[in-house]
Write a structure and sequence with these properties.
The chain is mainly α. The protein is built from 23 helices and no strands.
């Protein structure tokens, strides 16, 4: 941005001292920034000898370019006659352009080389993990296993940190989702590898134990390979990744093409449109052919598919006529045909969404008691092979149902990250089901084996965890469909300048520039994290209609839209939008405080003072935010200060809300009063895809991939050895 300022400055015959000083300051700032940047690059070069020469050359070029810019902008002495021969930005602007190009080129080289080093570190770490895994596979004594697993644990911790940092650096949401899925597999498989290997060592002649262990090693290798594919942006044997098209994305693209006919009648052929519709209708066969789709949904989908073909035929007919003769009547007919076609596709999308989500809701509710898993554990301990065989058949049926559910949900997920989450869930059920069966068979063959029992528990926990994750995923898919989330939910009651406040018409709408966004980014991220925490707390309430929950959800949603504003995204486009949103947010907080006062009458006298104190705090911070949001300011600097203050005070309110929600839950549970009651919190992992998010801080994200779990494994190996 500094270089752009220099290049774009206007040449004027008269230059004030203020202008000359400003140009000189910019040149010096560029040179100082380059100096700091190059110092880091040189330090990296000294630590990585294989790239030292390339890095050093790039650093020298960058430093030279920075110094050249500083010399050319040294214009403070222009007023002195003796400096007439001094070359400056005013006498040689092309010199500044050349230096700027060299600087940007060399800085890019340094960044690319540094990125290559990071990629190499991840690959080296992966290779270490693979080598140790091979040793673990071949180990024959328990003592040797303990020693090697300790080393393996440390290597996995290092790999977790490196890949966690990389995941946070990825800009592509699809890659970020794939990375999170792979790291989730590695996290769960680490514990599975421990218990499966111990079981195999304890029962070396047991075929089912061997199959169980081999399955874990195979899955870990696949996950490690996928991480490297994402990091290096490559596929094995030069293959291109062909992601399956979902019905949701197919309909979206088809509608865009149809609506594009309004602007241009000739930009695509009728064959293209027909092919696109055929592909969509082929995918609807996943629903109509499924044994789990209800008869009513199947009939509606078939009917709408037939109607879509008819609407397209009518559209093509009018479209072809309009190409030959562009009359007013024909263009009106074309508009009607476009609207009817799009409406039909919307109805089809709504129908498949309803079919997929209702199936998912029914299955998740039906399997929430985990009866089959409990029965497998009991019959396994009893050594009842016949009963184990019976329940493994039931688990296989359950697995097929859940796999089909994931496939149908993928079609209606609405975003690429959620599609990837559905694919990951499908793989998890597909793989974990047989692993539970082999673990149960091992326990039935060795009913007195504590390690075999522990091993079955670990695999059952993974299954239960995935079912809990599916409940969260289903909520997110519904949110996207209903417009409560884009990549994540945004608040829909959005202000429009001039609509809510007559005074706004006189104010010029202002957006944050890139520099201001950078300054406020950290505060925005903190707000984002707090919205995730509040969402997590509200989702623990069984009664989602509870007044406290509804106010909390509304405030979280508004805070998220304010976070998006700090990134230059979302529906809040100007600072006036933000200030009005802050006012609405503060009003919602005041309403919540009133609800808390009403709730305090239901709690025991011992708890009431604490709740009232927190309610008063909430009222106070909301009042402060309202005053800040309504304050009148003028000028760019003052406006940005007000934006910063609004975001800061919103963060303070959300921090208080994070404390209030669990307190209210605790009091509800204690007093058994009100409509809201707790259900057990699902063991939702923060690294799961949530097109945010469950987005948390980079440190927490990195730790989510079992770093603490792994460290605990390593610490506890001494206990294993003593056993």
């Amino acid at each position: 941005s500094q270089i752009t300022t220099l290049i774009n400055h206007k040449d004027k015959p008269k230059r004030s001292d203020k202008t000359l000083q400003a140009i000189q300051r910019v040149g010096q700032a560029v040179n100082l920034a380059v100096g700091r940047f190059v110092t880091v690059g040189e330090a990296i070069a000294n630590e990585n000898h294989e790239l030292k020469e390339e890095m050093s050359v790039a650093c020298i070029e960058a430093r030279r370019a920075g110094e050249t810019i500083a010399q050319l902008t040294d214009v403070a002495s222009l007023d002195h006659p003796e400096s007439d021969s001094h070359i400056t930005i005013f006498t040689d602007k092309t010199g500044v352009v050349k230096a700027a190009r060299l600087l940007l080129s060399s800085v890019t080289k340094v960044l690319v080389l540094a990125d290559r080093i990071v990629i190499k570190q991840i690959i080296t770490s992966r290779n270490k993990v693979l080598a140790t895994m091979e040793q673990l596979e071949k180990v024959s004594s328990f003592q040797e296993f303990v020693q090697i697993f300790s080393q393996f644990g440390n290597e996995m911790v290092e790999f977790a940190h490196l890949t966690g940092d990389r995941q946070n650096d990825l800009k592509d949401e699809k890659k970020k989702a794939r990375m999170a899925a792979s790291r989730a597999v590695l996290e769960k498989c680490t514990m599975m590898l421990l218990t499966a290997s111990k079981t195999c060592l304890r029962h070396p002649d047991c075929e089912s134990a061997r199959i169980n262990k081999n399955g874990v090693f195979h899955r870990m290798r696949l996950a490690l390979e996928q991480v490297i594919e994402i990091v290096t942006d490559s596929r094995p044997n030069g293959e291109n990744e062909m992601a399956p098209i979902s019905i949701y994305s197919g309909i979206k693209e088809f509608k865009n093409k149809v609506e594009g006919l309004r602007e241009n009648l000739y930009f695509l052929s009728k064959e293209n449109l027909s092919t696109m519709l055929e592909v969509i209708l082929e995918h609807t066969e996943d629903f109509t052919d499924s044994a789990y789709t209800s008869h009513e949904h199947r009939e509606h989908i078939l009917e709408l598919s037939k109607q879509a073909k008819m609407e397209l035929e009518q559209l093509v007919s009018v479209w072809m006529q309009a190409q030959n003769q562009k009359t007013k009547d024909l263009m009106e007919d074309l508009e009607v045909a476009i609207l009817k076609t799009c409406q039909c596709m919307n109805e089809l999308k709504r129908e498949v969404h309803s079919a997929a989500t209702s199936l998912a809701a029914d299955l998740l509710k039906y399997h929430t008691d985990h009866m089959v898993l409990k029965a497998l554990k009991i019959t396994g301990v009893e050594g009842n092979l016949e009963a184990v065989a019976e329940y493994t058949c039931k688990l296989s049926e359950q697995k097929e149902q859940l796999v089909e559910m994931c496939r149908l949900l993928r079609h209606v997920s609405g975003t690429e990250p959620l599609e990837i989450t559905c694919i990951h869930a499908e793989d998890t059920f597909q793989v974990t089901g047989p692993q539970i069966i082999s673990a149960a068979e091992t326990l039935a063959l060795h009913p007195s084996s504590k390690i075999a029992k522990e091993n079955l528990e670990v695999f059952c926990e993974a299954w239960e965890s995935q079912l809990s994750d599916m409940s969260m995923l289903l909520r997110e898919i519904n949110d996207v469909f209903e417009g409560r989330r884009g990549e994540k939910r945004v608040y829909l009651s959005l202000p429009r300048p001039g609509k809510h406040n007559a005074n706004l018409k006189a104010l010029k709408p202002v957006k944050l520039d890139t520099e201001e966004q950078a300054k406020i980014a950290k505060l925005g991220l903190e707000l984002h994290l707090l919205t995730s925490d509040v969402d997590s707390e509200t989702e623990k309430w069984e009664d989602q209609e509870n007044e406290i929950v509804q106010h909390g959800q509304g405030m979280s949603s508004m805070a998220y839209s304010m976070y998006l504003f700090t990134r230059g995204e979302g529906l809040l486009k100007t600072t006036q939008d933000l200030f009005h949103q802050a006012e609405i947010f503060a009003t919602e907080g005041t309403k919540l405080a009133s609800a808390l006062h009403a709730f305090s009458d239901q709690v025991h006298s011992d708890d009431k003072p604490l709740l009232l104190l927190e309610a008063e705090k909430l009222t106070s911070v909301c009042k402060q935010l309202q005053i800040t949001a309504k304050a009148s300011v003028q000028g760019k600097s003052a406006t940005f200060t007000k934006v910063d203050a609004c975001i800061l005070k919103t963060r303070n309110v959300m921090t208080l809300l994070c404390q209030l929600l669990p307190l209210c839950c605790k009091l509800l549970r204690k007093n058994k009063a009100g409509n809201g009651c707790l259900k057990p919190a699902p063991p939702w992992r923060e690294d799961r895809i949530r097109t945010g998010t469950n987005a948390h801080t980079p440190e927490r994200r990195a730790e989510t991939f079992g770093i603490k779990t792994l460290e605990n494994h390593v610490t506890n190996m001494t206990f294993l050895e003593s056993k």
